[in-house]
Write a structure and sequence with these properties.
This protein has four helices and four strands. The protein is elongated.
Amino acid sequence: MDEVRVFPIIITKNKDSSEYPYFVEIPDIDGMTEGKSIADAMKMAEDYIGTFSLENKLPDSNTKLPRVEEGAVVTLVSVNVSEYKRKNDNRVVKKTISIPNYLNELGKENRINFSEVMTAALKKKLSV
C-alpha cells in the first residue's frame, strides 16, 4: 500500500514578483517554494514535499490548518510519497540482460557503455 502524506501549506501573494507571485510556506517541514498561480504553487509544494522525502524522514501527516494573516490562502496538499520515490529515485540498479553475442563483441570492440545505451533506449521507449 502506498504511503500518502497530507500537509498544510500557506500561500501568500508577493506583489513584488511578476514571474512567481505566489509564495508558499510548508510549516511542518520548514519548507518554502513559489508558484506562478495558486494551482502551480500547490504543485510546487507537492514537489517540494516529495523531494524532501527522498532524503529526509517526513513528519506524520497533519491536517490542522494554521492561523494566518488576512489575504493568505491555507490549504492541504497530499503527496503519494511512494509514487514520488518510484518516479524520482535515481539510484542505479543492476540488471541482467541478454543480447546476441555478435552485438556484445561489437560493443566491446567499440568501447560501448552498455548501461548508458540501455538507459538511453529505455528513456526513449518510455518517453522520459
